[in-house]
Write a structure and sequence with these properties.
The complex is a heterodimer of chains A (344) and B (472). With 344 residues, chain A is of the alpha/beta class. Chain A is 40% helix and 19% strand. Chain A folds into two domains: 2-97, no CATH class; 105-342, Rossmann fold (3-Layer(aba) Sandwich). Chain A contains twelve helices and ten strands. Chain A is globular and about 50 Å long. Chain B is elongated and about 70 Å long. The chains are: A alpha/beta (344), B alpha+beta (472).
Chain lengths: 344, 472
Amino acid sequence: MFVCRTCRQTVQSATYVQWPSRACVTAGRGSFEQRRGVHNTRVQCQSLRTRLVVLQNKTNLDVSLTKGAGISTSSSLQGSAEENDQKFQRPMAQTTIDEEEVKKFSNLAELWWDEAGEFEALHSMNELRVPLIRDALVNQRQQESEGTVRPSLPLEGFQILDVGSGGGILSEPLARLGALVVGVDASEENIKIAQAHVMHDPKVARNIKYIQATVEDLVGTEAEKFDAVVTSEVVEHVADVPTFVTACCQLVKPGGSIFLTTLNKTYLSYALGVVVAENLLRLVSPGTHDWNKFISPQDLQYILDQNDFSTRLLHGMMYNPLMKRWSWIKNTSVNYAIHAVKAT
Amino acid sequence: MAMSLSLLFRRCCPKNRQALHRLFSTASTSESSDDADIVISGGGMVGASMACALAYSDSFADKRIVLLEAAPDRGDFHLPKRYSNRTCALSPSTAGLLSSFGAWEEIEMMRSQPVRRMQVWDSCSDSMIAFSQEDMTEPLAWIVENDVILGAIMRRLRQAPNPVDIRFETSAKSFVIPHVSESWEEKSKHPWVKVELGGEKSIYTRLLVGADGSKSAVRAAAKLHTVKWNYEQTAVVATLRLAEAIDNNVAWQRFLPTGPIALLPLSEEFSSLVWTTTPEDAKHLLKLPEESFVDAVNDAYWHERDKNALADKAVDGFSQLLNNIMPGGTAMKQLPPTVTGVEEKSRAAFPLELMHASHYVRPRVALIGDAAHRLHPLAGQGVNLGFGDVECLTRILEQAVAGGSDLGSLNHLLTYETKRQRHNLPVVATIDGLQRLYSTDFTPLVVARSLGLTAVNSLTMFKNLIIQRATA
């Protein structure tokens, strides 16, 4: 289930991940972006006109399926959104959603979202990283303008990109705080799991869009679009860190923020992050981390510097496996978090 | 475009917003079901104050809160002339909670009686203990009728800035709790709690708060285990008239071998009685003519039949010794007022039991008040523990909202459970222990408890610690 960015209505679509609903695009409203989730190839349309033709062909098919052939849809170009919506409503049996698939990913979502399960440490890390992002963005807004912040929706109006969103463990809290969140993940399975989970909470689903993509894919169309880019526990899994971080940086608006949390490249991080966490305590499944991919905060800051970012904050983080809680510490030799701001 | 739409959303009044929300929400929710952020089952003193605490908190400004109450709407509360026989001793911390949403001010405008001194003594010996704040300036507690407390809370709830959906004459027929209820596996597998109201109506909620008393249906549905036993005791309550108008601000409690008897101040002329005794004795007391009942109360406070000579001698010697070590350190025994009448039809009785749930929470479920713990009324702590639950759960839910977490997430609910059990369990155990210690006239125990009480009475520091624990 997806929410149209333009008219805020929910649309059900399995093959398209899109904010403006088809109805709105057909009516000529809102911008249009389309991505085939399965093949990860961008369908680039030359102009709105050709996009509409592409869509028109597609919708003709849908309508003829439900209402039988012979119903003309040529008027839909001029027709109002309401009319179009009615035409696009199909009986559940004829959607492209595969019930089996939905079930499978719902079950997987339960794994991701079991707060005492495999991802327990990630769930409890929210207690640190959500306030970090919230307070940094809210402070920034209060410095720029003297508007009041609603305590229930402090992040209202911010567009945040969650890189490596996984099952949506960090995306959902940010969306719940009012931000419009785009979660990208390279794994199709993760995207489907995240979608299967958020589907149940309409208030949160309204603010989230999950896309299967890499950040490099996004740079072409979404450069300087986001108030903040968050890459939490991702950098240590990336093959080429400088390229990855540079791409992330390009997506941030001037004056916007980037938040990174990752593991330092020290002997201690090998001992605790790999040996203890994976093999002894089994906090994460063995093989999750490759120490060679870890990066020191200095190296990361250097890359950020190169991209016109100035570091505002660098904190260490410590996990207590007995209390199952994270806390901030000064020492950055194992886990750490960086907040940097792009030059305006 | 998206911005202007969201602005439009924000400006809509809450009612419209809900209507809009329903319009835009998925087609998967059928006509008769309804979404809520928090459903509170039970609109008693604790449940209503939970709703009120949330309704006055900025964090819940756009959250949908539903309060289910089985009783019909009694409208605005009008203070009756007669005193009700059901009263509570509210601690200063409870007063703090109630005043955070203006209910305490409403109570003070109606009626409440401060307790500045509390005297507890034994019928088997001369030992006694007296509590008071320094100089008797700050009250230890206030005696307030239950009706007044609930009336004040409901009045503030109706004026709350974030409107609460109060549904009178509504109680849940059943609950479908994820991972717990059998019907959940078979049916929808919806990740939220489904509250079935009967007649095809239901509410899906992120968090269900069980405030439905000691026979909690929420607790049963969540399959939470309880530890309980019956004391084989019954509490007799009544409103009593005193012999003369006095500066009535002392709570008098005497431990009899059958159970404690307590006289709590209501006004200059009236006091409230809570007399715990055997079920047979209670039946007999209810049947007695008014005059004989008054005689029985006075006799219970004054008689010397249970005196144990050995214990008396021990206490006598011990207090002389203490007096030599710390002259003037012990508080003096005062005499309770004489009762001359009982208000018509104010006598009632109810059985007593101890109950404590081994867990207060499940994913998406939390218990507060009597649903989680019920204890002996001998120290008047029961309802204060419930209000403490409300305060704690409200703080923790506020933090959850600030951190963007799901309200029903077990992570923060466990913090609530840990905090409250750490506070409640010692209280439950102490009160149960006291009840056991004082329900016997076995000589060695009588001597031991008498000496203990006398010693504590002379240790001001230790006594202040007890006061701090009991009032905080």
